[in-house]
Amino acid sequence: MTFWIIVALLLGLVLAVLLWALLRQRGEIVDEVRERNIRVAREKLKELEAEYQAGNLDEEAFTQAKEELEQELLEDTSVAEQRVSVSAFGQRVGAVLLAVLLPIASLGLYFVLGTPEALDGEAVNPMAGNPHEKGGKAPTMAEVQAALEKRVQEQPEDAEAWFMLGRIYASLQRFGDAANAYEKVAKLTDDHPQALIAWADALAMTQGGRLSGKPYELVKQALEQAPEDTTALWLAGQGAREAGDYQNAIYYWRQAEAGLADQPEYVEELRGLIAAAKKMAASQGIEVEDPGSSVDLKAAAAGIELEVRLSPELKERVKPDEPLFIFAKAVNGPPMPVAAIRMTVGDLPARVTLNDSHLLRDGKLTDHKQLKIGARIARSGEPTAASGDLQSAEVVVETTAGKPVELVIDQVVP
Questions:
Q1: Contacts by 46-51 with C-beta closer than 8 Å and gap 24+?
Q2: Do 274 and 306 fall into the same domain?
Q3: How far apart are CA 74 and CA 82, in angstroms?
Q4: Interval 105-146: pLDDT, tens
Q5: Rounded Cα–Cα distance for residues 310 and 298 (Å)
Q6: Domain of residue 384, residue span
């Protein structure tokens, strides 16, 4: 057990470092592109003004040249942000896949290349050394790559190995090889949507981040099977905008926005893309319709206001450092909580907000029309109810009602 705890901690540390390095630079890139475009435009504007003041341009020519410069700035900035956004979303896709695949790949390679039998103290003599003669060293990226390449040669029908190999190629910026690997995955999985999306993303990177052509077709193919997949919807919006189809770009992004309602940073980014698409359309005299946002970020952030207090009759039975759990359960569902907050008795009385950040699974609070909410002082220290624990009655609330909920801990679990 100690071994697996150490493994989990080390994997968590490695993931944290890799994800931070993968995602941290996007804002800097966007700012740099925007500032460079604006700086160049300002220099051109100064030249135009100098020509106008010198009498080399009449007022009509100056006005026309200025309008053309503004249009050029709008297009350059929008296209640059689009490319960065595609690349950034590819980074996010990579981050999600990395978080999923790194533990799987690490453990898989350990059981293939390592010494799992060493976990059994009776099975392997610790003094006998490593039977694989690896010297106790973890395999390098090159060794992992070589092992996977050998595996797909020996077992060409292994879709999981092809997918992991594609991720390694992508991390090495060998996007052409990554695309070929994902194409194999797509064929082996009957064009699974996730394989098509990964294939499209890799192909786009071979085109400098542009989705035109084959990548866009793959994304639309994925959407036919998974019309609510937010990654596919996001990329489809990018492809539509590149094709000048601003109307469908807005529709795709509004659908993606609805699916990402519990991630406000993505919603804000999508709204920026939609605003840019509207400006581009207007500058070209194209009329577009916007169905509007179905996401209320303020309401999602607000959550459910709770007032929790302990009955005076029970105050003498508890200690300030005893754990207090506030939980929310589905009204018609399994007894496991969908969200929880951990506090201590010393925090009472308390006013807290239960929101999406307290969820114990994917989704959002508003996925449930109603929730059962209660509070329990776990004298045993365990979150599950035990004899002698103190608890409140469970209150059924509407998740969008916006009314404060009072919880009074006044019962003893028999």
A1: none
A2: no
A3: 12
A4: 555 544 444 444 444 443 333 333 344 444 445 567 788 888
A5: 30
A6: 302-412
